[in-house]
Design a protein that fits this description.
By secondary structure, this protein is of the alpha+beta class. It contains 18 helices and 22 strands. The termini are far apart.
């Protein structure tokens, strides 16, 4: 048997080369191989990183215009828009807006030295309490607030500390450019930006779902004037508070509403409840003689009483152990015109009793006096209405006691008495001029025209001469009511008010002022009634707001004004004819008379 030569595979007839003998691998060679592999991976990672950087540089320099980066403004920071709409006045002036802020919080689990962190934070934010903060940072919670709504300066101070476990959270803070001036109107929000008072609370859902600004009927210029005059009156008569309203009688828009004392809406916590109290809408008071507006309108509109009718104002009225009498006794009976002009209590009582209890109750209900107003505020007071409504209640209500309503009730109802008899719902929102104003006819236009004459009569010949503003044809009604304390009335604790309107030949605006507990002065001979306290304030306000509202002064002695506003004590509305000029002898001449104080030349 032949043996194949070495290297020949007998099965395939091919050479087969035996593998070379392998050398044993040493530990050194293994280490070198691993090092080589690691270097290759590291080089690959560095290449990827530098490639990415290169791509960015190419994109920034070639594909984008090469230039110095523009500084980013705060408003351009990539952040979601604010979540609460602005509130503006009727002219677009900003009353409330939201600003993006940063709040500070911590994760105590990530803070190794809470004492040191607390010390540094209280150094940057001195208003923080060290012990309270140390307790928070030493707890087991994963989230604790340190301070909400930091100022930019505070944020920068904390940021520079570089504290681990301490972070910023973007939030919003409400800012009120008018501050105290509109606090009782606009209200305020809490730390979570939810409305807690005023329009902020009333329209909380609207402000958080609709980015369009909420436009009010309020005029910021009128707010300034009203607040200034109210504060002047408070200071002069040492009063404890006051409220004032300017109201458009044609559509029910509230153009100004001030309640003093007021507060800073940026910091409403810990305040005296009296400061937060809105006297214009939430406070309900016995209004005194301003209620004679409604008693007189009710009487005339009934058709049973005429303005020339006479009522007994001499004999007092006894009700049980009480006696109703005049503030200043009269020596003769008065007509309805005189009852209103002189503010007679006895005449008002007898007018109301001639119509009866049910008539009075129905009339005041129709004027909205027995329920809260529809004004868009959560601070809306319920009237205090007698139940049951007896004859004695009808007597006292006729001259403004025994029933309590808010100043807004009084103004809204009075507007319907002089605007032609239409009761419009009051509003703090600017009405759309293209939409018809809702309203209900509550008295006849004839009665309304007569009431306008009586309003003017009070200023020209009655208890409110000090409210006159030359050229603006002011009318109105004074009111003074003793405050009830316990089960009796305090003679030296009163509410003094005046409800004025202008111009009375074509009414457009009501100006109402109520002063809480004024004290008489030497200048007022010790008196602190509505005619001495509130009426002068209304006169000053009318002089200032008339030009702003576009009301042109007129000649108050012109036939147009006289014919629309004249009435006398007898109830006659036709002005007397002017006396004819003296007859001159035939052929004589009239010498010109020089002005007083000048000598003829």
């Amino acid at each position: 048997m032949s043996v194949p030569p070495p290297g020949i595979d007998p099965a395939h007839g091919a050479y087969s080369v035996p593998p070379p003998a392998s050398k044993p691998r040493t530990s050194l060679s293994v280490a070198l191989e691993q090092s080589r592999n690691r270097l290759m991976v590291t080089a690959a990672m560095v290449a990827v990183v530098f490639s990415a950087i290169g791509v960015k540089l190419v994109d920034a320099t070639l594909f984008n215009h090469a230039a110095e980066p523009r500084p980013r403004m705060a408003a351009e920071v990539d952040a979601p828009p604010v979540n609460r709409a602005d509130i503006v006045d009727r002219n677009g002036n900003l009353l409330a807006t939201s600003l993006a802020t940063q709040s500070l919080y911590a994760d105590p689990k990530l803070i190794s030295r809470p004492d040191e962190v607390a010390r540094k934070l209280t150094t940057a934010l001195p208003e923080l309490d060290y012990k309270d903060l140390l307790t928070k940072l030493s707890g087991d919670k994963r989230f604790v607030w340190i301070k909400r709504n930091l100022t930019p300066r505070q944020q920068a101070a904390v940021f520079r500390l570089g504290l681990p476990g301490v972070y910023f959270e973007r939030e919003e803070r409400r800012f009120y450019p008018a501050s105290n001036l509109t606090s009782h109107l606009v209200g305020f929000t809490g730390v979570d930006n939810n409305g807690l008072a005023g329009l902020e609370q009333q329209f909380n859902k609207r402000l958080t779902t609709d980015p369009k600004p909420l436009q009010l009927s309020i005029d910021l210029r009128l707010q300034h004037i009203m607040k200034k005059e109210l504060q002047t009156t408070i200071d002069e008569f040492s009063a404890i508070g006051a409220t004032g309203i300017i109201y458009d009688v044609r559509n029910g828009e509230v153009m100004s509403m001030v309640s003093l004392p007021d507060y800073d809406p940026h910091n409403p916590t810990g305040l005296d409840p009296d400061t937060l109290f809105n006297r214009a809408t939430l406070g309900v008071y016995e209004m005194g003689s301003t209620f004679k507006i409604f008693n007189t309108a009710m009487s005339l509109d009934s058709g049973k009483i005429r303005v020339s009718d006479t009522f007994d104002t001499i004999n007092n009225i006894k009700v049980g152990r009480f006696t109703i009498r005049e503030y200043h006794p009269f020596r003769h009976n008065l007509t309805v015109a005189e009852v209103f002009q002189e503010s007679s209590n006895l005449g008002s009582v007898r007018m109301a009793m001639s119509l009866g209890v049910q008539h009075q109750k129905s009339f005041l209900t129709k004027l909205g006096m027995t329920r809260p107003t529809s004004l868009e505020l959560p601070e809306n007071g319920w009237p205090l209405v007698p139940n049951p409504w007896r004859e004695v209640n009808t007597m006292t209500i006729s001259f403004g006691h025994g029933m309590s309503v808010s100043p807004m009730h009084t103004v809204n109802a009075a507007a319907s008495i002089i605007n032609g008899g239409v009761l419009h719902p009051p509003t703090l929102l600017k009405r759309d001029p293209t939409v018809e104003v809702p309203g209900e006819q509550v008295i006849s236009p004839k009665t309304s025209a007569m009431m306008r004459r009586l309003f003017r009569f009070v200023v020209t010949d009655g208890t409110a001469k000090s409210a006159n503003a030359k050229g603006y044809v002011v009318g109105g009604k004074t009111g003074t009511a003793e405050k009830q304390k316990g089960r009796s009335y305090a003679r030296n604790s009163r509410m003094s008010s005046f409800l004025g309107a202008f111009p009375m030949h074509d009414p457009r605006y009501i100006v109402y002022v109520l002063v809480d507990e004024p004290k008489g002065t030497k200048k007022t001979y010790g008196f602190a009634t509505g005619g001495w306290v509130a009426a002068p304030a209304v006169g000053r306000i009318v002089k200032q707001i008339g030009p702003l509202l576009g009301v042109q002064p007129v000649d108050e002695a012109s036939p147009e004004v006289i014919n629309a506003t004249y009435i006398n004590t007898a109830g006659q509305t036709t002005p007397p004819a002017p006396p004819p000029p003296p007859a001159q002898p035939k052929g004589s001449t009239v010498a010109s008379v020089p002005p007083a104080g000048n000598k003829p030349r």
